Amino acid sequence: TTRIGVLTSGGDAQGMNAAVRAVVRTGIHLGAEVYAIREGWQGAVDGGDGISRLDWDDVGSVLHRGGTVIGTARCREFRERAGQLAAARHLLEHGIDRLIVIGGDGSLTGTDEFRRNWPDLVAELAREGQITQEVADAHTSLMIAGLVGSIDNDLVGTDMTIGADSALHRIVDAIDTIASTAASHQRSFVVEVMGRHCGYLPLMAAIAGGCDYVFVPEDPPADGWEDDMCELLRSGRAAGRRDSIVLVAEGAHDRHGTPITATQVKDLLAERLGEDTRVTILGHVQRGGSPSAYDRWMSTLLGYAAVQEVLEATPDSVPHILGVRHNRIAQIPLVEAVQQTREVARHVERQDYEAAVTARGASFGE
Ligand code: F6P
């Protein structure tokens, strides 16, 4: 029987459970066995209870649950050769040489590195007598598929990542909630939004939440932004607006790379406009809770596609991420997607924002 391992790695995201469920049930439907690797790569490194078979019913009642029921972690040991040797040995104990990894770009890069090292790791394990030559010969390559699990929506090549839509819903709900208390008191609120180096969540939330001002990493404000922002908010008040809401991405900064923080914006509004201002840091509320309908169906379709991908893969296959392009499930070359994502980050670091936006919008073969 073909055996598939599934793991979630890096920060959790709503919809990961839907993907795991789809992987398990599609795998069983197509005649394979599916194994959970628990707590991210840690389960593979540790072996024992870290790897266990999942049956159809084991993934019942998880579709609507946030987080990941098989656990996640950022595993340091897996970055070292000793950790990778242990992981390969434990996977082979279960006859697993096909893997579906649900995680961010770091997890996906780590997985591809492991895939490239695999023949070497297997040869070393056989040489040292930790596995038989027969096992080594039967599993000469590792076949992988990646799903992007991250609320940040920061991977080039896919329109959406698992969890981004749910996080956006959570943020917009919070903005609506804040707006009512803000309006009652005629207060201003500065809301810090997650997304690491990516402005997707704050930008979309600002539009959907009808906010007054937003700071995102990819489009830092020009010098003198303090005056512009205050003027805009002042005129909003003058026009009768009862609430003012400013969103600040956690990765926001000015044109010189100096961070723009929620507290700094709050102080500005208080000092220059005399506004009664509060800061709300949404934090991990954004990453928790039930996945949206979109995240549930997208993750289900992606999980299904990922199983097909690993079952059809051959040792020579190019590893893919399964993502969404133009509202269709698409195969995206993993290495290029990660490289281009890093390219975007480099442009942002060098403050070449036009190049960053172009690189983010770059498509594969279109
Ligand atoms: O990548 C997801 C994310 O929630 C980011 O938006 C945020 O910067 C980071 O993870 C927070 O990480 P942690 O959960 O380790 O505090």
Automatic annotation (TrEMBL):
Its cofactor is Mg(2+). Residues 3-308 form the Phosphofructokinase domain. Belongs to the phosphofructokinase type A (PFKA) family. Keywords: Allosteric enzyme, ATP-binding, Cytoplasm, Glycolysis, Kinase, Magnesium, Metal-binding, Nucleotide-binding, Transferase. Catalyzes the phosphorylation of D-fructose 6-phosphate to fructose 1,6-bisphosphate by ATP, the first committing step of glycolysis. Pathway: Carbohydrate degradation; glycolysis; D-glyceraldehyde 3-phosphate and glycerone phosphate from D-glucose: step 3/4. PROSITE patterns: PHOSPHOFRUCTOKINASE. Its EC number is 2.7.1.11. The lineage of its organism: Bacteria, Bacillati, Actinomycetota, Actinomycetes, Micrococcales. It catalyses: beta-D-fructose 6-phosphate + ATP = beta-D-fructose 1,6-bisphosphate + ADP + H(+). Pfam families: PFK (PF00365). The keyword Heme does not apply. InterPro entries: ATP_PFK, Phosphofructokinase_CS, Phosphofructokinase_dom, PKF_sf. This is 6-phosphofructokinase. It is found in: Cytoplasm.
